[in-house]
């Protein structure tokens, strides 16, 4: 019974360790500024994204600019905006606007998932789509147009929102995703539970069974970690048929950068799980060797060590 209890505790510890690692990454994506900055911060440098956004801003701005200015700028408007987008990360004001767009998108999506969790999913297509609001960036770029200036840029700049649906073809359940997103904020509870179960499993185990169960728990953690590392942590860009050029560029760029951000954590997790497995196997071999030594010290049929008594027959014959 103790052997079974030890095995259950250690396997659950391995699974909870993997769950806490995944939860921590989701929590960072939704509630901390650095991950999204690392994943999408260099997006304006992507040529496909810059061209798509430039065309969109130029077209919308041309419709709102006064006729005199629009005619004066003419066909060079898109080239002007394209150059501004390409140099977005080199301009302090534009870089601040891009950061505002990223962080507001992150916060809005966290609120969007929380609303689905509390109110329920509507079952509509695109319910999990991410809306990247580029309006602050458009305001800065329109302000760079000659004869416009920064004062009127806020009135003339178009509202640009790029909708990106990362799970459009996966058939993901919106409420399930929202539930996992809310549960991710409690990843530390899973980590603590994993530690407690690991200690209980080691204390409950005895002899070789303890180390065998430890290796089993490490294998369980490694199995889940490998699945996540090669699956969710390394996503293939979803099909972008029918999506806008800007949306397609965002999906491809973010998929690559997300893998570069997420995978190292899981490779480290796999390395840690491998250490646990090796530790269990070493302990198993050591316990087996100790049992063999104890067996050699015992007499036949476990009757204890053999004792040699001196032969007194010679004395008795004297």
Structure report:
The protein is mainly alpha-helical and 318 residues long. It contains 13 helices and two strands; from the N terminus they run ααααααβααβααααα. Strands 1-2 form a two-stranded antiparallel ribbon. Helix 1 (2-31) packs antiparallel against helix 10 and helix 3 packs antiparallel against helix 12.
Produce the secondary structure layout:
Elements: H1 2-31, H2 33-40, H3 47-64, H4 67-73, H5 76-86, H6 92-119, E1 130-133, H7 135-142, H8 153-156, E2 161-164, H9 174-183, H10 187-204, H11 207-230, H12 245-297, H13 313-317
Helix pairs in contact: 1-2, 1-9, 1-10, 1-11, 1-12, 2-6, 2-12, 3-5, 3-12, 6-7, 6-9, 10-11, 11-12
Biggest sheet descriptor: 2 strands, antiparallel
| Share in helix | over 70%
Strand content: under 5%
Number of strands: 2
> Globular, elongated, flat, extended or rod-shaped: what is the shape?
elongated
Through-space gap between termini = 63 Å
Radius of gyration: 32 Å
| Continuous helix count | 13
Sheet/helix structural class: mainly alpha
């Amino acid at each position: 019974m103790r052997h079974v209890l030890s095995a259950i505790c250690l396997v659950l510890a391995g699974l909870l360790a993997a769950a806490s690692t995944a939860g921590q990454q989701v929590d960072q994506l939704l509630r901390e500024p650095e991950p999204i900055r690392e994943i999408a911060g260099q997006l304006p440098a992507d040529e496909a994204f810059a061209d798509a956004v430039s065309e969109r801003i130029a077209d919308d701005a041309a419709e709102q600019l006064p006729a005199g200015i629009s005619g004066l700028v003419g066909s060079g408007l898109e080239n002007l905006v394209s150059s501004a987008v390409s140099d977005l990360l080199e301009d302090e004001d534009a870089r601040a606007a891009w950061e505002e767009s990223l962080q507001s998108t992150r916060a809005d999506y966290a609120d969007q998932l929380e609303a689905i969790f509390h109110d329920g999913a509507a079952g509509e297509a695109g319910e999990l789509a991410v809306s990247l609001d580029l309006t602050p960036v458009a305001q800065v770029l329109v302000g760079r147009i000659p004869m416009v200036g920064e004062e009127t840029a806020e009135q003339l700049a178009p509202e640009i929102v790029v909708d990106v649906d990362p799970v459009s073809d996966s058939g993901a359940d919106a409420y399930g995703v929202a539930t996992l997103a809310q549960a991710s904020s409690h990843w530390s509870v899973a980590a603590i539970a994993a530690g407690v179960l690991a200690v209980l499993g080691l204390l409950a185990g005895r002899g070789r069974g303890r180390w065998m169960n430890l290796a089993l728990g490490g294998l369980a953690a490694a199995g889940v970690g490998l699945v996540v590392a090669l699956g969710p942590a390394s996503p293939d860009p979803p099909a972008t048929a029918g999506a806008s050029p800007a949306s397609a560029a965002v999906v491809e760029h973010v998929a690559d950068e997300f893998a570069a951000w997420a995978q190292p954590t899981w490779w480290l997790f796999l390395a840690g799980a491998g250490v646990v497995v090796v530790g269990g196997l070493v302990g198993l071999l050591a316990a087996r060797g100790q049992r063999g030594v104890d067996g050699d010290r015992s007499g036949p049929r476990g009757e204890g060590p053999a004792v040699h008594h001196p032969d007194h027959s010679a004395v008795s014959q004297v």
